[in-house]
Amino acid sequence: MTDVIVVGAGIIGAACAYYLAQEGLSVTVLEAEFAGAGTTAAGMGHVVVFDDDPLSAYSQKLLWSLAPPDVGLDRCGTLWVAETPDQLSMIGGELLDEKALREAEPALRPGLAGALLVRSDGVVYQPALTRWLLAGLPVKEHTRVERLDGLKADVIVNATGAWAPALTPGLPIIPRKGHLIVTDRVPGLCRHQVAELGYMQSAKTLGDACVAFNVQPRSTGQVLIGSSRELVGWDASINRDVLGRMVRRAVEFMPALAGVTALRVWTGFRPATPDHRPYIGAWPATPGLWIAAGHEGLGITMALGTGRLLTDLILGRPPAIDPAPYSPARI
Amino acid sequence: MIESALCGMGTCFQCVPRRACMERIPSWVGAGHPADVMIVGAGPAGIAAAVHAAEAGRRVVVLDSAQRPGGQIWRHRDRRALPRAAVRWLERFDRCGAELVPGAEVVDASAFGGRAVVLATGARERYLPFPGWTLPGVIGIGGAQALLKNGAADFAGQRVVLGGSGPLMLTVAAALARVGARIVLVAEQASAGCMARFAAGLWRTPGRMLDAIAYRSAFVGAPFRPGTWVTRVSVSRSGLEVALSDGQRVSCDVLCTGYGLVPSTELARLAGCATRDGAVVVDERQVTSVPGIFCAGEPTGIGGVDAALVEGAIAGRAAAGVALSRDLSAARARHREFAQRLDTAFAIRPEVRALAEAETIVCRCEGVPYGALDPAWTPRQAKLYTRIGMGPCQGRVCGPIMECLRGWPPDTPRPPIFPTPVRAFL
Q1: A258 and B421: CB-CB below 8 Å?
Q2: What confidence score (pLDDT) does residue B216 get?
Q3: Reported pTM
Q4: What value does the CA radius of gyration of chain B take, rounded to a whole number of Å?
């Protein structure tokens, strides 16, 4: 018999399984499709620190020190771009003025106020990272779990992201759809991950469809263009209107993108929570059941931190960061 | 010679710069246009559909990614090089009143609206991988033909081997010989027996097709070897060295390869049309499973130019709301039977499906070797883990390969179905 069953082999489940197995526990991962097939497959793979969130910084540090090979790690940094001087005045850190910003990212339009440069940020090819985390662990793919109460293990971890409420009713996680575009190879067009400061606002509301400028250079020389957020249930179809708004926003900031060739457009579903923080910890109603889900658009960033935090909580050790903000007990 | 060109028709994205094989890179359209009948594709099926719909008094628009009408088969710079029947169709198309929008690549089905739409999107070549098939100098058979028609490559004095399958090989060999290429060998993987049975069924005159082949083979001055296929190609001091299944080796400058055609069904599938065995399902009026959307020619099953003309005529009349004639319906049935026989005669033998080695590239865009693909993986899993099919050709080359080698179903199409400038989404 296995000590732990992790349900869900997305990057969150993979990171939980990785750290639990590191502690010598026997871990089995059950996955409805294949490792990284869900939200993990659809995302951008950004590893970004939000200054008001200790989990993102903790998680990022873990990833850079682990530095797995061949997973497309690129510490390209993030530029948070300000359109107006007052936007710039509201943030702290390494600030670039208009001229410095033009030098750092020449494809951005002239006339932007400046930017915050976060050098520690980067990107990763998240399907590869997910597989690296799961290497050597028993992963039962194409195994859909319908109910958790039939599973036999001391510890059950629900790491099924946007699908988690189906297994744990009462978890207030909803799918928040996003669109992404990947371009042909255009090496050098975009040097950092670049996002508008408004991205944070767009990430932290839960209302109508919204778009924000966010581009990311990939190790292949391609560029990912985002982002959009919509609450439309599980409708995966491409919304031409939202896509158009997203592209307009991107081209406003980086005009040269208009002439770049888009190879593909796709959608995915972020697991969103009402307070935009994930649920990591024991599920109060069911002894032995633990939750690691609801990371919305920051699952890749927060995966390793989530895995470590959950492992410490399961083993009853003091975690490196305060677990209270992420506790499912807050629901 | 264009570096690394393979398809010669803008689908493989292997030339440098990309799509250099096209005369001009097409513009991309969502397909909004105030016409009664919209036709996608100006090959024989699209031309026949346009002619019949326009002559019935409908307002017709025809969208095609190339600069001239004719499709892959009739897209010559010089119409004098075309068969007389083709010239007659093109002239009738010029006169019929249909509006041709050249250089327009339809990448989305969302703007079809309520009007009648005829999808005549043609076919592309099927390539099968063997060691060395990604070397410069290895190009498609149809690719060589397309480059010839565009005047984009000079084959004069080149030693050419053609290795693959299908009736196109001899046509292309003859065309290459006419421009001064030296045809070293034509290797057809189908056996002489298979082709003879095909010929027997067609004309009830056993051997007539073989006679024709022998004639054409003699005409190009090259040996035609049925039941033979290329197993490997490598670079030697004297050019390319081609190893054959019969143990022989030949040298050449250019190796043309291709294993028949694959229906181009992306747009139809994006519009929701049902497919069976890789072809769009249509009824006797060429109506797809989506009311108002018709499909004609190769996307409904590879049948050649005569089938395309008949199906196009039926689709054009049906889209215009005009009655069909009994002659057309009878001709359609005849051509479908021909297509079925063609399929059987040139069925790809298992040995040819087994030529790829672990290091042989199957996805040229992303450089994915065959050995990287765990047979236990689902196609989507393989795509995510190895990036197979994620490149600019959007799986148009590796998709049919993996269908042939591993039985993968085609990937679900998403807009844009061709790489598209970002500004097209504005």
Answers
A1: yes
A2: 61
A3: 0.92
A4: 21
